[in-house]
Amino acid sequence: MPLLFCACLLSLRRAARPALAGWLLAAASAWALPAAAQALPPDDPLPPAVRAALARADVPPSAFSALVVTLGPQPRERLRHRAHAVVNPASVMKLVTTYAAIDLLGPDFTWHTDFYAGGPVSHGVLRGNLYVRGGGDPKLVYERLQAAFGNLQQQGVYVILGDLVLDHSAFDLPVHDPGAFDGAALRPYNAGPDALLVNFRTVELRFAPDQAAGVARVSSVPPLQGLAIDAQVPLSRAPCGNWRAGLQARFDDANAIRFEGQFPQRCGEQSWSLAYQEPASHAARALEGLWRAGGGALTGSVRAGRTPAGARLLHEARSLPLSEIIDDVNRLSNNVMAQQVFLTLGQLAPERINALTVPRERLTPVRVGGFERSREVMHRWWHSTFGTRYATPVLDNGSGLSRDERITPEALVSLLRHADSHPQGEQFTRSLALAGVKGTAARMARGEHSAARGNAWLKTGTLRDVSGIAGYVFARSGTRLAVVAIINHPNAPAARPALEALLEWSASQAD
Could you tell me which CATH number the domain at 112-176+282-318 has? Predict the structure, then answer.
């Protein structure tokens, strides 16, 4: 039954997926609980501080799902409340994507962006096209592209007598509308993935007040070819406050960013990262801008195309290792990087993913990646790793930036326990935010007497109707715990104190 329902689930149309997925997952979880869990009452009482925080936010306990389990060879449940419920985990789903990547690809896995010559190079001139073939690098930032172009110039390529051809063919993706999710098309978290993802498809505006001149000087990185940005904006004596709104920036023209407002001089130097208003042309503008800014010349155009078989490899730009990539994915909750990792998993041959017969270190990308292919790989990986005890998560893009993704707290705790005993489990744990210290959990556990501060490694998740945490807690007793708590309710963001209360309760546990 589990294999049948999961296969059906993956073939659902996205619009129908959440409702039917919820029924199927709940049905599977009901009979798949371990014997120790079945012996417990279905809902243990929540700690009073958790219930009080939920009440203050006007969130019923029925919208709260949690499971706290000790780690080790003989796990013991400390708290169970609707742990079988099928929930939208928001960015907590990144745990599934990143752990699958650590398991299947290994922490040392790297992506590569290749630069090919379509003709001979002599006397500083490439007589032909320069091809840039993307490999899905999640963090191909402008500094690394500058280094790659510097390498080409060291090989004698200063002038391209031809076109700059960008090869995006490693991923097969639908057209991405960055405003479709929540209408905030310029927010970097809505940037879409790409096999040749340059600087997260963002542009960073930097503002430096010049009080003598009465203006703030404006610069941008990376330089986008053909994009005119006002070089200065008048200063004001207004409080810093919402200085971005005060700029009255205009993004209605793909070729210009204009400012009709003022910049408060009290703000000092500031930067503003935003998604470029015409994402489809971002890579072309950025690469041409960086090439020219570095002293390179180009006689032709910048266009999309495939790398021909006869092109000669000039340079291979390797990415950071996966272990460092998932630091940004989990600790900073970078959505587009998570989707890049998810799509890379879709490049694996699914028939090879069998934990019993295939050494994981030999798995390498062999095909074009796509979202459906990634879901297929993740389906097989989940069953090869966890069997049929817990229902397969419902995955959309692997980042949690979705209304459709679903999982149960039981399944998340199972993943956390499995990762805790994995040979590369430490790499996974280190990628999580540290409560009260760094990452998206830095604002949690800030109380003077917090037991969780510096003792909880967490992935957080937030959408307009979702708040959640999942990760590891070192209790004062020395006990190590896997903790998962998810709120699905319109008032979920206001109920985050309930998650913090559970976190403190867990960290304060004694044997």
Answer: 3.50.80.20
